[in-house]
Amino acid sequence: MKKIGITCYPTVGGSGVIATELGMLLAEQGHQIHFITSSIPFRLDRIYPQIYYHEVELNHYPVFQYPPYDLALATKMAEVIDEEKLDILHVHYAMPHAICAILARDIAERDVKIVTTLHGTDITVLGIDHTFKKMIKHGIEQSDAVTAVSNDLVEQTYEMLDVQKDISVIYNFVNEKEYVKKELPHLREQYGIKADERVIIHISNFRKVKRVEDVIYTFEKIQHHCKSKLLLVGDGPEYTSIVQLVKDLGINDKVLFLGKQKNISDLLSISDLKLLLSEKESFGLVLLEAMACEVPCIGTRAGGIPEVIEHGETGYLVNIGDTEQAAAYAIELLTNSERLVEFSNRSLTHAMEHFHSKKIVRQYLQLYNNLGNE
Ligand code: GMT
């Protein structure tokens, strides 16, 4: 049995989901898990006797202009390492979490091993602000082991940071118990979706990199050829301009803005096709969630997306911004029921064969064991 500390951003986001689900699955296998985060991870919605939660508290000191969150986190990590006798501290993101973990290891008396998982956000930060380059590089190089969620992210990390460190690819996974197709005909009716209409879904945090406007332009083309509705799930900075675009295109009666939702698998269960047309995406966990619910996906040739979608088998790939091609592929699938069923079946098979949680958790455990800390 290992004692493992986990730090992530506990909010709704792929990295937080992966960190939490991994913690829960490791706990089910008898390991002791200590989440060290600013709030309870949102997926941690039931009691696990093997899981502990250590809150990072923020004090507002009159002498500091900003509350020092990173230092509070490092202090809490050091305390948990010693008090709980952690073997491993697994952090998600090099910046700031690996940096905090390194500081905590220096402060603590115990020789904890640091595992850092890269989700792409460090590269995004670098794209905006190069002053952090050395800091991120340091976080990666001083970790005992580093993983990334796709081969593309490994390549990008080497290219942008020139790091001297082995980075292993460990793909993302989903909780198969939760992400499974359900029969929910009433839900379709409740949303006013007619029996002869196809349902297209997009789920994101509406950041600019997600190019939600391309989803709208693609749908606008699709709905001329195929009776359909578009479900938009999530919220974020681009939300208002997307609402305006939908109005300007005169398709507001066909687009349902659902905002942030919890039971994503229910929404996927009433969907026929998923669109993810981002310009940056280290993996695209929402694709895997869709595939596990038997929903084929159309995605861009960006980041790790081509490692998740098999072009022409489980979905299609298009160049960034090519909404003509995305719409053409979507129409081809949505108007051919036999082909759609084939793609749906293959999506599920592909998700289970390549990204099954059992396989992925085994890879993380193997990595922990190789660190030689009993
Ligand atoms: O995509 C986001 O904006 C959220 C971000 C996160 O940190 O949770 O997602 C990143 O990590 C996910 C889990 O590994 C990946 O599936 C997403 O592709 C990745 N996002 C980007 O690379 C933009």
UniProtKB/TrEMBL annotation:
Residues 12-176 form the Glycosyltransferase subfamily 4-like N-terminal domain. One of its GO terms (molecular function) is glycosyltransferase activity. This is N-acetyl-alpha-D-glucosaminyl L-malate synthase BshA. It comes from the Bacteria. Pfam families: Glyco_transf_4, Glycos_transf_1. Residues 187-346 form the Glycosyl transferase family domain. It comes from Virgibacillus halodenitrificans (Bacillus halodenitrificans). InterPro entries: Glyco_trans_1, Glyco_trans_4-like_N, Thiol_BshA. GO terms for biological process: bacillithiol biosynthetic process.
